[in-house]
Amino acid sequence: MYSHASESFIKQAREIPEPELQKFYSKLLKLLQGKDFGHETLDSLQRLYLILSVNKYTKLLPPELQKKLLSLLSSPVEQLQVLSSAVLRETLPLSGQELSYNQENISQLNSHAAALLLSQAESKADLSSLCTLLLRGLEGRPSEGPSPSLMLTLPIINTILTHSPDCLTEDQVTLLSKKLVDWLRYASIVQGGGASSGGFFTGPRSRQPVPIAELDGTVSGDFFTVLCVGQGFTEDQWMNVYSFSMLRHWLLTYHSCDFYPSDDRSEVDGSVVSMVSATSSSSRLLPPKERLREKAFQYCQRLIEQSDRKAHKRTDTELQKACLVEAVCILDCVCVEDASLVYRTFPCIKALFGRLSSDLSFARVLIPIAQFYLNHGEMAAVDCDGVWMLVFGRYPGELFNDPFLAHEFLRFLRLNLDSVQLRVPQYIRSFPNLLKFLAWDSPAVVDDFVDLLPSLVTPGTAVELLHSLLDLPCLTATLVLQLRSVSLPIAEPSGRGVRLQDAFRNPSLRGLFLFLLRGEAGSGDTIDRLSTLHELLAEAADWPRVVHCAQVVPVLLHIYFHRVVEMADEKLLAHLILVMLERSSLLLKIPTYIREIHRVFSCHLLRLCKRRPSLVVDQSHELLEFAGATANVYSKEEIFTHVVWVLGEYLSVSCDSRCSVSLITSCFEALEAVLFEITSSAPSPGNICPAPKVITTLMSALAKLASRSHDLIPRVSLFLSKLRTAARSGSVAWCADEEDLVSVVTRGEELWSLLKAPGVAQSVLTPPAHINAPQWHRDTNVASPLQLVNSATLRGF
């Protein structure tokens, strides 16, 4: 969201009148016609960009102004290049003034002009022509100093391939593959520009070639890579860096999917290819694709060796990590393309894992290593348990607050979900650890868990996972306390959160927090002292992270229940109903959170019972115990109403032959007692009047039960008669709104009228299955009285 000042500024730019805009164009043109471009010119260009970018429709600039802006693309001042390119990308090019380059002026191309050139490309043919132009520029001999146009070639081509990978011909792919091989493997091994020993007679002839160095300062004894350093770099060394940066994209685009099927391999027998690949000295015999694959393999192995050197600068250490990530990803690509490389690559990857596994600062590198083990571990018959124990154990447990790692790790899981479920037994068991990412930064990762959560729901984890989701805000608070306990001293001055911090460190309460922080499932579904934990964490209910976490739990619960209904048997569903009833009163004290959870429980209680009506008889004791507690009318109105409706709807012989008259009677008496209690007196202090929906649902449930056991009809009729009499005598204590009272009395009169004819009451309140089927509107022979009865309304909802 923009600030108020920014929004006002944008509104002014969007609503600028046309005459004023033309004056502004003229003023800017005069400024650009001058020799020196000061702050006023830069400010005017920035204002022009704002005006063009915030408008819905693309505008045309005056021809002279457009021409001046095009000329700024070759300005020596980069800020002018940036602004002119940005402005021109927001406009329509005038006929005859499109930016264009040919073989003569392609050397003048810079990155900002290239961005404009790509934005103005109207077809695949335009992109193909530009690629042809750029590739022709590669045929020149390497120069001593870097040529801007040559150095831009690979980034521009890489961008083009992202949008239109088929714009290169097969010959162009072959040409660029050969060039990539040369740049990656045969770049110069001396520093660019030469080096001087100093002194009075220093001159061009006295400069001697200085070899490139490693990051630890030693002289490099092998070919040049992106991890080599020097005082300057030659053009082919720069192209080496650019080649490495686009290598993975190139391999994925033109190698993995066999973009241009060819019979390159037919030129060399398959056994010969395998044999030749093992010796770099003979690799020139390979076709271009295989040769590039072999050089990519050698390059990445060299990078892994270089990453073991102690860098002198912190920035170089970060560069080593980034290069390791890319190198392992490229090795994975080439092994996917050529399975014979797996056996040559695994010793290197295994040694790298052994070297980095104890250092949490290299956690980011472990994700591509895990990808490599996942893709090739089975083929190489290696033990992957150590990798999975680290990736699913220590990293989420200790680095849950690293946003980049969370993104990369969850992306890895989403992209490989089927393989992970099949090959990684630790995945399902580690859901308590995975949920730490969600608990810590819910808004950032909730989309990932929307995809992952169904895979974590199994018959063995369903109950524990439900408890874990309900206690997710508690886990958030506990993670905050865990980090604070490390960073803050024990003897901290009095302040907010000190009591919680002391509780976290208290040995007698430590077990409560350790259960939430567990790394694997299986130690128990939940803990006995949940109410104690919620009391301790009540102070954390308004912490921002806790509030954000509480907002995403209902969304995930919907996904959880949709999945559980598909895979659970009746025994598990019965257990989940008990969990819902129990946990409806055991939630962290956040009012909006409690209301949303009750709403989710109510929704899915109906779905479960509709799918398996026999669950109501199986769990009748627990459901009656819940519905028979008058306190639930006030504290759990939503779920109480739905429990009552379920009892009235499905406690029937037609739903379950085990439903006896005694069970119907006991249910009737429990609901009757609750209804009598809430309608015979005013609510206790601190409670508001029960909602009309609660009372009408109770009345409907009693009428349904009485229609199945006619001995109960007089009792319902008597109550409904007294209700009508009490309402007519004046206001009642249990209903404060007159309209609500009228609605309740009207429903009571409808039910009373139905119960006067028990046979009709049973057919309306407990219709057979074929009556419930929505076919009546299609049958012209249906008796009209059945269409006139709004049975759904009379049945409670």
UniProtKB/TrEMBL annotation:
Q: InterPro entries under this entry?
A: AP5Z1 (IPR028222), AP5Z1_ARM (IPR055450), TPR_AP5Z1_C (IPR056856), TPR_AP5Z1_N (IPR056857)
**Which residues does the UniProt record annotate as the domain AP-5 complex subunit zeta-1 ARM repeats?**
319-436
Segments forming domain AP-5 complex subunit zeta-1 C-terminal TPR: 448-789
Do you know which Pfam families this protein is assigned to?
SPG48, TPR_AP5Z1, TPR_AP5Z1_C
Q: What residue stretches are annotated with the AP-5 complex subunit zeta-1 N-terminal TPR domain?
A: 1-278
Query: Mind telling me which GO cellular component terms the entry cites?
Result: AP-5 adaptor complex
In Swiss-Prot or TrEMBL terms, this protein is called Adaptor related protein complex 5 subunit zeta 1
Organism encoding this protein: Salarias fasciatus (Jewelled blenny)
Its gene name is ap5z1
